[in-house]
């Protein structure tokens, strides 16, 4: 893989960042691209420094060696004696996820983020301006005192006030729902082909979504599944270091695994987000890998469409984020979307995070049961 770096400027230093913070931002990006290889990320950092003289702009002679020492002191990297290599720590994992979240939120339009509500009313967290008659079980904290008083005055005399049950008015509240999401990430070889790094934006979105849910929506769940020749679970802590392999694209097994995960969840809303840049090109048949990389193999495609119908029957929405624009691939995505009655986005890499976050927010409002 080759990287082309744009011209370095000192805007970060002008913004008041310390030498460590300036290099730390850059190092986290390189570490994500390298799949967690600290040595490789440091080699790239040295190359960039040599070409653009970043550390020459720092006062007090702060260099890459000082940066490495400070990362060790702050607990961002450690030396693994068993493997004889430098390794990132859990503190680094969290920092990379938080950076991804901030980066994606900066891309969103103002007003696109925040707490998410349903179109239904009932017991909830936030008052609406509308009121309704009180009924057994309503929270007395939501009583509309003004409306209740006006109702009482309609049948009371000047010397005696009589409050009846049917006088009580309460504010309605917006209902917050829980949602269970499985994020499918394509790690087939095409995700790094043609000189374009597609896996890094996909990982960033997954990290940011994980951080958002863990920090803001504790009752929601997010599971992450990578799929190539097969599909397997990915832990949040492993996300920054997920790598593309010499794989075909087993979309069928990815969807099946996601559905099986969601079957075990007791949530109002269940959904699958799938990030891919290619067509389904393989599946497991009779315990063996059946593959065809040329065109759209109807045998494979029909099995994928059948799985999309099963997901629809189980009220699991599939939203596909296609980061390729080949016409025949778009035709496949249209077929998949029609079979599931889901949604599809043909997204550029820099808009991927915005699309997924906005869709996640919208889907939390659906199907309160």
UniProtKB/TrEMBL annotation:
Biased composition (Basic and acidic residues): 124-137
Domain of life: Bacteria
Region (Disordered): 112-137
Signal peptide: none
Organism phylogeny: Bacteria, Pseudomonadati, Balneolota, Balneolia, Balneolales
Biological source species: Rhodohalobacter sulfatireducens
Descriptive protein name: VWFA domain-containing protein
